[in-house]
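Per-residue structure
===
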Amino acid sequence: MAPETQGAPPVRQLTVLYDADCPLCVHIRHWLLEQHLLVPLRLVPAGSDEARRLYPGLDHAATLREITVVGDSGQLWTGTDAFIVCLWALAEHRPKAEWLATPAGRPFARGAMYTASAWRQAVRTGPGGPSAADTAGEEAEDAQEAACGDHCPPPR
């Protein structure tokens, strides 16, 4: 999962597409900007005109549903992988990111993403915020996605 893999171009910059209508996402954006970076981060509101101009081929509706990170050579990470890549870009958190990318650490990363996703759906303020019907369906989908591969049951 680490961005630097054999044969792949090195990552020199990452663009994080974040939900500007989500208080948690905006808070994390500010936190990221305060960190000592090993890889420069560009933070762009997901679904914005800038995001559409920079990445016309992306599914921009999907970038509003889950964190998306784009590398400067076209690499694409979403969800748990995007979360780990963001930590990998930070000096203080790179060792943690490398552990989270392992089979032993990945369930913890998924758990963090599941928790953030559930909280995010509850507090999202912009258009497309949750309705009761949407929330019930999304919670069921999120629970399925949060399971650890095929060997862990979804959370209840």
Summary: Confidence is low (pLDDT under 50) at residues 130-156.
